[in-house]
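Internal tracking record. Fields below are filled automatically when a chain is submitted to the structure queue. Please do not edit lines marked as system-generated. If the sequence contains nonstandard residues, flag them in the REMARKS field before resubmitting.
Queue: standard
Priority: normal
Entity type: single polypeptide chain
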Amino acid sequence: MTVLLDPDQLRTFVAIAETGSFTRAAEVVHKTQSAVSMQMKRLEDRVGRPIFTRDGRASRLTEDGERLLDYARRIVKLNLEAIGSFTDTALSGRVCLGVPDDYADRYLPDIMARFWRTHPSVELTVLCEPSSDLVQRIATGAVDIAIITATEITARNAHVIRRERLLWVSSARHAIHLETPVPLALGRPTCQWRDIAVARLAAAGRPHRILYTSPNSGAVAAAVLAGLAVSVFPESALRPGMRVLGTADGYPPLPPCDIGLLRNRHEPSPLADALAQHVIQGLDNLNEAEAAQ
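SYSTEM-GENERATED OUTPUT FOLLOWS
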């Protein structure tokens, strides 16, 4: 008898392939990590081939796993389209999400994959700009929802959904953090993290100078990784090759970084509501912390 593949197992399999992690995939499909592992064991039993192989601490797809991935994506997509065709409330149209590039690399893949799975007929536009610019975009209606760094100014209308550590970082391969004055790579003069970094170093009596300025976190990260400067990054934006600095290195503690969600209140729409829910589900760690307590 022909054994049929389980679409729910395939959805989890695709999530693992897209996020690169069993742990992150568990968050995407709203399952525990043990449930995800059990699903993959059953999927391997169904296809009769190993689809994952160990690579150090990580797992990667085998050749059979790569072959299955193409089928899995098509099956999941067709499944969603079939359900959507019988649902009168299926959403379609365009929606625009704004996000600073500080958070784009870490959060966008999960948000986009999660949103596409449930709303395959929607066209999602993503705009990457600094938080202060996105606040203006929301005010003019150019963006439907925006993920921003919540400050005393921007948080007035933002729903804070995540709190992370703000960290001093330097290159793991260089000792630039030992120099006096400390060379800094920071955002433009309106950046709150820039103000915080300068103020904390001044209060600690640590001589410093701003060597590089850019509104783009990738450019700032490049200066750090090249061993040219020290900077501040939220925990989610840390990159391989960065070293986190602390009080033992002579760098004062920094306040936490709050991430908020802003919505266009002038032109609310079901699409924006649906996207907002996916963002909240993907980023919310405040409720998790409360539940743990």
